[in-house]
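Hi R.,

As promised on Friday, here is the backbone we talked about, encoded as structure tokens. Could you run it through your design pipeline when you get a chance and send me back a sequence?
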């Protein structure tokens, strides 16, 4: 028996246009060889070619043979909608080979990720000597990289001092290469995180009237990070982990499991954004624990338009254990284990969650910055807030106390329509200046919002 709902199918859509295109394909006339089992849905959709579409029911992960750069694509959305609205069009049967092999590969990857590594077998003296040499080689590589990073940061500090001494006004005539060349030097110094900050700064110049102040703030944050890295031994371990991560050092999943928090909870998917940079796509998924009230950020990366490894349906709830990266304000996490059952949609924000006022939300952001001063954004659930349109400025979001925050972007008519002029519960991402709506609960339904450009 199929239990998938239309709300789940539409919430899985990457944007409104994909959802609308999926609705048009939710008709058996476009399909052949439709079927389902306890694990999956499948079918072949006739478009400019015959596309093989499959959906794993436990995660709503979609695989399609079409060349679309959206994940899930309109064919996957259409198949899920059809399963929800006209389930009799699908026949229960054994999955065909092209579905079974896909399910087997996913199960193998999931099992490998969830299985702890077996303890190493006892080694003889010769093996111990080999391990000692390997450990020494690793230590030497780390020492070499530490030296490269420090040299790169020294060069950056000199460059920054020259920039400030010359005055920011000279930047008005500088091409993008002025920033990108310096960022490349940092990549060569294996400080990729700091290089990303330099690339982001290139977009600040002329982006707004107050760009000199914004750029000065960004340069100050980079200088603080550079100084903190050179003084990292004096920092508390969680903050030291933040600094190294921001510079460009990464942790393996085993290192995350060993050093970070483990939280088992039922997680509400607040919302999701996708950013594109050249050929790399970054997906940010915000989760909120219903018992722990812990906020979690799942980062996924995709190169060359490949699908993301995991699917998170916006507005859904699911049981899972998360492993958090060590941090002074832990946010980033990975799903370590997740029961093999279908996530279900939330109809309202749980009464124990969310911020009752804008002041409470800003207070949490201030507390987070006090612990991790390079935090650039934070998501949250704001209860009983109302969108207010503005003809000559940014839209506002007001709470019951009369406090308000500006909304990012200029078109929030869909949010206003959901509100109907009344208060609702909004899920949003705050960057220190503007709120970007992610989703909203209104009249017993979660609606994903696209104003963030996801």
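Update: got your reply. Pasting your designed sequence below so it's all in one thread:
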């Amino acid at each position: 028996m199929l239990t998938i709902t239309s709300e789940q199918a539409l919430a899985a859509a990457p944007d409104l246009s994909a959802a609308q295109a999926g609705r048009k394909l939710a008709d058996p006339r476009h399909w052949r060889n439709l079927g389902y089992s306890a694990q999956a849905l499948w079918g072949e959709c006739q478009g400019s070619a015959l596309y093989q579409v499959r959906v794993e029911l436990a995660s709503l992960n979609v695989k399609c043979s079409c060349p679309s750069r959206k994940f899930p694509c309109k064919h996957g959305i259409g198949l899920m909608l059809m399963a929800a609205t006209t389930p009799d069009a699908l026949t229960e049967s054994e999955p065909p080979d092209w579905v079974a092999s896909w399910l087997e590969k996913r199960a193998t990857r999931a099992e490998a990720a969830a299985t702890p590594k077996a303890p190493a077998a006892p080694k003889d003296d010769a093996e111990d000597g080999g391990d000692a040499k390997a450990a020494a080689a690793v230590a030497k590589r780390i020492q070499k990289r530490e030296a490269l990073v420090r040299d790169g940061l020294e060069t950056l500090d000199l460059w920054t001092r020259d920039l400030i001494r010359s005055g920011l006004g000279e930047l008005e005539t500088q091409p993008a290469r002025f920033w990108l060349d310096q960022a490349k030097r940092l990549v060569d110094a294996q400080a990729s995180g700091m290089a990303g900050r330099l690339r982001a700064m290139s977009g600040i110049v002329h982006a707004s009237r107050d760009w000199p102040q914004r750029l000065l703030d960004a340069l100050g944050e980079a200088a603080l990070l550079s100084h903190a890295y050179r003084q990292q031994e004096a920092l508390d371990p969680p903050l030291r982990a933040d600094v190294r991560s921001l510079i460009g050092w990464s942790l393996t999943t085993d290192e995350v499991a060993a050093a970070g928090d483990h939280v088992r909870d039922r997680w509400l998917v607040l919302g999701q954004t996708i950013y594109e940079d050249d050929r790399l796509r970054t997906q940010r998924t915000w989760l909120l624990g219903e018992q722990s009230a812990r906020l979690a950020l799942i980062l996924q990366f995709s190169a060359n338009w490949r699908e993301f490894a995991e699917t998170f349906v916006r507005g859904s709830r699911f049981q899972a254990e998360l492993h958090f990266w060590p941090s002074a304000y832990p946010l980033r996490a990975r799903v370590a284990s997740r029961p093999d059952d279908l996530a279900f949609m939330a109809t309202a924000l749980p009464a124990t969650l969310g911020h009752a006022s804008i002041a409470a939300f800003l207070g949490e952001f201030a507390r987070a910055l006090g612990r991790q001063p390079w935090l650039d954004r934070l998501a949250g659930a704001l209860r009983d807030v109302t969108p207010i349109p503005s003809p000559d400025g940014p839209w506002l979001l007001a709470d019951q106390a009369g406090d308000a925050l500006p909304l990012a972007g200029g078109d929030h008519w869909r949010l206003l329509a959901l509100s109907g002029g009344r208060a609702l519960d909004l899920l949003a991402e705050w960057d220190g200046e503007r709120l970007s709506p992610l989703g909203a609960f209104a009249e017993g339904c979660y609606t994903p919002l696209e104003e963030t450009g996801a």
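One thing I noticed while checking it: The mean pLDDT is 90.

Thanks again,
M.
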